[in-house]
Amino acid sequence: MALSLIVEIVLSLLLAATLVYCALLERRLTALRKGQDGLKDIITDLNAAITNAGVSMRVLKATASSAAETLDGRVSRARSLIDELSVLTASGERIAARIERGAPTLPREAVNGALPAAAARLDALKPQIVRSESLRTEALRGVR
Questions:
Q1: Roughly what angle, to the nearest 10 degrees, separates helices 108-143 and 2-102?
Q2: How far is Cα 77 from Cα 140, in angstroms, rounded to an integer?
Q3: If you compute the radius of gyration of the chain from its CA atoms, what whole number of angstroms results?
Q4: What is the pLDDT of residues 81-137, one digit of tens each?
Q5: Which of 13, 143, 30 minimizes the C-alpha distance to 84?
Q6: Number of H helices, E strands in the chain
Q7: Cα distance between residue 104 and residue 46, in whole Å
Q8: Are 48 and 114 in contact (CB under 8 A)?
Q9: What is the DSSP string of 63-86?
Q10: What's the CA gap between 19 and 25, in Å, rounded?
Q11: Which residues fall within 8 angstroms of residue 81, CB to CB, at 6 or more apart?
Q12: Beta-carbon contacts of residue 135 (< 8 Å; ≥ 6 apart)
């Protein structure tokens, strides 16, 4: 009888230890489930943030493309204006060189006689000069 009582006491102790271990295991499993729910929420938020970032990247790409097209247009217009100004400058330099070459060789009487004719030619060219100056001014304003 003493042996059966000892075996029952040992079994009762083992059963109590198993019960305590099951209670600890239940707490750990509950904490793990809460952690999974939190992880699920974090993953959902992360997924939404990734989607928003993708949309923002597409908008940014479209904006950058539009800005690049605008900039390319302005650069090509500026280059054409540079070419036009280079032609005008070269033309002006050629005219100035011809005037410099021709001025000392003309006699004084020819110069005095040529002044009214040159003045008349300049008066005839004034509308063209004013128009080309206004076109250049508008072109330069457009570049800015």
A1: 170
A2: 10
A3: 47
A4: 999 999 999 999 999 888 888 755 545 554 455 566 666 766 676 666 666 666 667
A5: 143
A6: 2, 0
A7: 85
A8: no
A9: HHHHHHHHHHHHHHHHHHHHHHHH
A10: 10
A11: 139, 140, 143
A12: none
Domain boundaries, the chain: 2-74
| pTM (global) more than 0.70 | no
Could you give the CA distance from residue 50 to residue 98 in angstroms, rounded to a whole number? 71
Residue in the block written with tokens 């198993």: 18
Instruction: Report d(CA 27, CA 20) in Å as an integer.
Output: 11
In whole angstroms, give the CA distance from residue 86 to residue 93. 10
Length of the chain: 144
